[in-house]
Design goal:
The chain is α/β, with parallel strands linked by helices and about 180 residues long. The chain has one domain: Class I glutamine amidotransferase (GATase) domain (Rossmann fold, 3-Layer(aba) Sandwich). The protein contains six helices and eleven strands. Strands 5-2-1-6-7-11-10 form a seven-stranded mixed β-sheet, sandwiched between helices. The longest helix is centred in the first third of the chain and has 13 residues. The two termini are about 25 Å apart.
């Protein structure tokens, strides 16, 4: 199961692009609100209904995904339950993915030390100990990071490639008329 975490102030395109691409690929994915209610209000004031609340997570995760956005990213950083789940997932070597400002969530926990990572331009200082890259998507071991809204399709396709293989990712790219 892949869990994509939603908070008030999330960047809706980064979150929903990933949801769309992964679901097209047949990946089992649940959107999870950390707000104590299923409806989340995005950074551009669009109301989005999450599949479940954080408290309702039952199945073990294969991957955690964090979309960026402000104040979505600070809201993700501040959630104690998510903090514990991220740390536990890192210990269990579960995939941890994040885009835009959200890689700073992993950076703030010291999880990117010695790892290659990328994030939204200007936030590189919030990836302490990471080897900062400016590639659209960076994969280092179980960490997958991406730069922002403009790289959301690349990010989603890379997640599909990791979970389902390059052939499936290429097929999805063709179906959405996207050149990789």
């Amino acid at each position: 199961m892949v869990y994509l975490f939603m908070a008030d102030g999330m960047e809706e395109v980064e979150g929903l692009t990933v949801v769309d691409i992964l679901r097209r690929a047949g990946v089992e994915l649940m959107t999870v609100s950390i707000m104590g209610r299923r409806n989340v209000v995005s950074s551009h004031k669009i109301e989005i209904m999450a599949d479940i609340l954080f408290e309702d997570i039952k199945e073990p995760a294969e991957m955690l995904v964090l979309p960026g956005g402000i104040p979505g990213t600070p809201n993700l950083k501040a959630h104690e339950g998510l903090d514990g789940l991220i740390r536990e997932s890192a210990e269990k070597n579960i995939y941890l993915a994040a885009i835009c400002a959200a890689p700073t969530v992993y950076g703030s926990k010291g999880l990117l030390k010695g790892k290659k990572a990328t994030c939204y331009p200007g936030m590189e200082d919030e990836l302490p100990g990471a080897e900062v890259s400016y590639d659209n998507v960076v994969v280092d071991d179980k960490f997958i990071t991406s730069r922002g809204l403009g790289t959301a399709i690349d990010f989603g396709l890379k997640l599909v490639e990791i979970l389902k293989g390059k052939e499936v990712a290429d097929s999805i790219a063709d179906k959405i008329v996207y050149k990789r």
